[in-house]
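New here. Invent one.

***
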Amino acid sequence: MNKYAIAIHGGAGTITRSSLTPDKDKAYRDALEQAIMAGHSVLQGGGTALDAVELAVVHLENNPLFNAGKGSVFTKEGKHEMDAAIMCGRTLEAGAVAGVRSIKNPVKLCRAIMEYSDHVMLSSYGAEEFARNHAVEFAPEKYFFDAFRYNQWTEIRDSDIFMLDHTENAEKKFGTVGAVALDMEGNTAAATSTGGMTNKQYNRIGDTPIIGSGNYANNKTCAVSCTGHGEFFMRAVVAYDVSCLVEYKGYTLQQACDEVVMKKLVDFGGEGGLIALNTAGEVVLSFNSEGMYRASKIGDEKTFTGIYKEV
């Protein structure tokens, strides 16, 4: 049987043991376990990497613990604007959305764009119109309301401060979810989804929907999903940079991730992390922050879940 694997993340940042109660720690680990096992079951049954990453991300989007889908943070206007992307490593086809509202699962809309349009990225009202035409599910505003997210917003809504997610430090919270997978046919895929920044203005868009910055998949090299301060990840073209180091310089996947996450990003102030895998079934979970919600499972091996930086 060919090797198959999947990895997921639920955001990175200043996540320390002291910042989570035992109950909260368990809740995050349980959520990661459920999401990765959903994606893994697709692969185990001979399904595609695309189906696996989409399903895993749907599970994360449906959980208010994570800043994506149902758990998306509030904008300056008190609304929810979501970004997402999905990419096929076999064909290099991709679909992405930016600044969409009321879409229950943005990753599903990305899949529809990839399969039923001649475009890669759609935004705002146009993306929502496409969703209506292709029976992508919408949800009412109340579906996206979460008391914790609302309280986060009310603390800063009268200021010009924006806030990322998952940390005790308001300046270092990176909330995004993502998945990468390798199926039995040797194909890879990546999907990423986010609610962006709390109190963001001007329809700000991050790295998540930008192919090559926050999301990328190529069978020749690797599949990558990122989480971090999007402005830095866009400027560093992080996901594609990892792929390029593998393709053009012959780096191992671990070496490429370390070079980009632990050196390049750090050198100019970028914080966050990524998950990556290749067709050999190698998985890398790399981050330069205090923690990253993450999980991985290779074939029938034991599932790994982690939150904090390993000592």
Residues 276 and 284 are 5 Å apart (CA to CA). Residues 5-306 form a domain with the Glutamine Phosphoribosylpyrophosphate, subunit 1, domain 1 fold (CATH 3.60.20.30). Residues 166-173 have pLDDT under 50 and may be disordered.
